[in-house]
Amino acid sequence: MNPIERLTDLFEKFPGIGPRQARRFVQFLLSENPGFRGDLSEAIKHLGIETAQCTSCMRWYAKGSQQNGLCSICGNPSRDKSMLFIVEKDADIDNVEHSGFRGLYFVLGGTIPLASEEPERHIRLRELLKRVEADAAKLQLNELILGLSATTEGDHTRLIIQEKLLPISEGLNFKITSLGRGLSTGSELEYADPDTIASALSSRQ
Ligand SMILES: [Zn+2]
């Protein structure tokens, strides 16, 4: 395959990128100087070497000085372990942080499509259940907050998680809440402003 087609195909795998945009990226790279292309390929190479996935919340972080397999949030002893905020993706955490939340997180890694027969294939459901059972057994967990997008797929995912967690929450004595009013229909946490998230958090139910 010729190098232009090869790179176009790779860009097309990015979320939300179609063939036309993929070609524009390649054209842009061709028009840039070789130094820029070198920097880009170096940065991509190091992304794999210098990052790790947090064993507790599952988000990706730059390793830096963290050596215990935990990201800077999960490894911070002053965080409030009684609250666990469930989000769809890594980017949601940055936004919730700006709203002033100081509990802990778990990243699902997506949502469950409406027609799916196997929810485990789309989100980290098994990992979530394991994490919640461990936290609740240590009496650290008081409340689990479901911070899913106000979309049809987000609602669907929330219902499935609630159904799976309910027996555990009753047995281990923690409550399950969802973000309240404030997040408008169709909105994703990633794009909501911190004030909106703060108000949705304070009106959770
Ligand atoms: Zn973490």
Describe this structure in words.
There is one protein chain. With 205 residues, this protein is an alpha/beta fold. The chain folds into two domains: 3-49, RecR Domain 1 (Helicase, Ruva Protein, domain 3); 53-202, Dna Topoisomerase Vi A Subunit, Chain: A, domain 2. The chain is 44% helix and 11% strand. It has seven helices and six strands. The strands form two sheets. A four-stranded parallel beta sheet has the order 4-3-5-6. A two-stranded antiparallel ribbon has the order 1-2. The chain is globular. The N and C termini lie far apart (55 Å). The model has no long low-confidence stretch (mean pLDDT 90). Zinc ion binds at residues 54, 56-57, 59, 70-71, 73-74.
